[in-house]
Specification:
Strand order of the largest sheet: 2-1-3
Strand content: under 5%
Largest sheet: 3 strands, mixed
Number of helices: 12
Helix content: over 70%
CATH architecture: Up-down Bundle
Oligomer: single chain
Structural class: mainly alpha
Number of domains: 1
CATH superfamily: Rhodopsin 7-helix transmembrane proteins
Number of strands: 3
CATH class: Mainly Alpha
């Protein structure tokens, strides 16, 4: 870029999910409750896994990291979107817009790698059970998490490298509730067709390669499980169903947005809501409601902090004070 290509746009206008003023209070309440559910559900999983020694295994270590990544993924844009429902002018500074792009691809790319790591963990556990604890050692688990963040960082830096120096001197309306590369690059004052192709190819390659690795891994696992006893097959199938559900819910919208270039903006906004808000809130439900060990650990955690007689005693004290 030449030195004359200096950005004159200091802020962007986010058009949000809807322009209807009547819907804004309703959307505010809905997404505030959803965001609170994301924080509470995922923090509960992290607390449960860290507090119960029976869950100090590679699978739950990766699950806790998935919850942490989900919190980050939901928090890069959702709080601002919730606040924007209450204001007339939904603006975001140029630097804050770039920050949203950075964190979106950092957390989004990292979560893709983490889901592949979780599939690898299930492959070792089911296909090579005798060597599981040797292969999936603590050191290996830490390396997998480091790879997650390294890939996410490299991915987001490579994306921003094509955008940070683009000249923005005209339109500044982003037709979404957060800044994303395909939408922001279209606002530049130069022809960005080639840059858009590179950006989409970058995200599309990461999405498709991760998804194909997951498909191959789970296919091998399912074939292995099919040849075993019905008891082990039922337990493995329950775990695999949860993992495969999460993969479909997360990769479906991402692939549609970044690999399929002909979707409309309204469709993209719905899909963006899906993988930044609905998937992070569904993950705790999917992994806890189908997992007896996690439910037992949560029950133990509740009994530790909430004694059985505490609630009834508190109610009796309140009633006695009212009588007096």
């Amino acid at each position: 870029m030449s030195k004359t290509n200096h950005s004159q746009v200091t802020e962007f206008v986010l058009l949000g999910l809807s322009s209807s003023k009547e819907l804004q209070p309703f959307l505010f309440v809905i997404f505030l409750l959803l965001y609170m559910g994301i924080l509470l559900g995922n923090f509960l999983i992290i607390l449960t896994v860290t507090s119960d020694t029976r869950l100090h295994t590679p699978m739950y270590f990766l699950l806790a990291n998935l919850s942490f990544t989900d919190i980050c993924l939901a928090s890069f844009a959702t709080p601002k979107m919730i606040v924007d429902f209450l204001v007339e002018q939904k603006t975001i500074s140029f630097k804050a817009c770039l920050a949203q792009i950075f964190f979106l691809h950092l957390f989004g790319g990292g979560e893709m790698v983490l889901l592949v790591s979780m599939a690898y963990d299930r492959y070792i556990a089911i296909c090579k059970p005798l060597h599981y604890m040797t292969i999936m050692s603590r050191r290996v688990c830490v390396i997998l998490i480091l790879i997650e963040w390294c890939v996410g960082f490299i991915h987001t830096v490579s994306q921003l490298a094509f955008t940070v120096d683009l000249p923005f001197c005209g339109p500044n309306q982003v037709d979404s509730f957060f800044c994303d590369l395909p939408l922001v690059t279209k606002l530049a004052c130069i022809d960005t067709y080639v840059i858009s192709l590179v950006v989409v190819a970058n995200s599309g390659f990461l999405s498709m390669s991760s998804f194909l690795l997951l498909v191959i891994s789970y296919t091998v696992i399912l074939i292995t499980v099919r040849n075993r006893s019905s008891a082990s097959m039922a337990k493995a199938r329950s775990t695999l169903t949860a993992h495969i559900t999460v993969v479909i819910l997360y990769f479906g919208p991402c692939i549609f947005i970044y690999v399929w270039p002909f979707s409309g903006y309204s469709v993209d906004k719905v899909l963006a809501v899906f993988y930044t808000i609905f998937t992070p809130i569904l993950n705790p439900v999917i992994y806890t409601l189908r997992n007896k060990e996690v439910k037992a650990a949560m029950s133990k955690l509740k009994n530790r902090y909430v004694k059985p007689g505490q609630v009834s005693a508190a109610l009796r004290n309140i009633l006695s004070l009212e009588r007096n």
